[in-house]
Amino acid sequence: MKKIEFSKLNGQGNDFIIIDSFTADVDLSPQQIMSMCDRHFGIGADGLILVKKSSNSDFFMDFYNQDSSRAEMCGNGIRCMSKFIYDKKLSKRNKFGIETLAGEKTIELDISNGTVGNIKVDMGPPIFKPDEIPVDLRGEEIFDHKLFTRERDFYINCVSMGNPHCIIYLDKNDELDKIPLDIWGPLLEKHPLFPNKINVEFVKVAGKNELEMRVWERGVGETLACGTGACAAGVSAFKLKKISGSRVRVKVPGGVLNIIWEGDSSNVFLEGEAEHSFDGVYFI
């Protein structure tokens, strides 16, 4: 029987199993990943991260969704991984690079008395071109596009933050906590318009520079937070002039994330803290 040491961390309730595959290689099958992420018979998590070596950066994030599908990038996951790296002394620096399938991301940690506080991630520039998101539509950008479904019509806004997002602003009469996310989420996630499936964010403008959001993540379902989703929601809100300035607070069921974007082709920054839940050993 094989013994695997792991840590459980979360960013605003978006939780991950993180394993050191940097010191010694760890190889997991899709079934093992699903079993570990299972909330009834395993450890339970929205995703699993293997911290690996990189030939192009300081570290490589090998990220898997709950259903074992591999994802390009995860904003909350990379923040949790960054805390893991510092806490496990894989790096003593407060600034380092992490390679992902969506490119290299630069991380800055606020350290106080040896404890990691705020974590800032340079997420890179948002992607708007439909074929790069990807979305099976023509044009330079997809904003306020009317999508017909069997449930209702949605006005969709599509952005990639290294992984694809479909942002929908709710009508004034819609209550965010009462929408049938378990129906609308998978309906849009698996819509044929999105060849790689898509993450879906339902958003309400809560103030001058504040959004409220619920998210349906592809390969997972509803989660308490989504870092790349918060970035995509913030970018689309700026683009549609629903908010002003360059900073926005995104309130999710698990807490608050801060997004910074100066517009155009500038990079998006994601900020927030991550929490260590527990360490353990899993036997395969």
Task: Write a structural description.
It is a single chain. The chain is α+β, with helices and mostly antiparallel strands and 284 residues long. It contains four helices and 17 strands. The chain has two domains: 134 residues, Diaminopimelate Epimerase, Chain A, domain 1, CATH 3.10.310; 137 residues, Diaminopimelate Epimerase, Chain A, domain 1, CATH 3.10.310. It is globular, with a radius of gyration of 18 Å. The mean pLDDT is 97.
Q: Count of helical segments?
A: 4
**Per the principal axes of the C-alpha atoms, what is the gross shape?**
globular
* CATH class designation of the largest domain: Alpha Beta
Helix content: 10-25%
Specify the CATH architecture of the largest domain.
Answer: Roll
**Mean of the pLDDT scores?**
97
CATH topology of the largest domain: Diaminopimelate Epimerase, Chain A, domain 1
**Count of discrete structural domains:** 2
- The rounded Rg comes to 18 Å
Class derived from helix and strand content: alpha+beta
Give the low-confidence spans: none
Proportion in β-strands: 35-45%
Described by strand count, sense and barrel closure, the largest sheet is: 17 strands, mixed
Relevant CATH superfamily of the largest domain: Diaminopimelate Epimerase, Chain A, domain 1
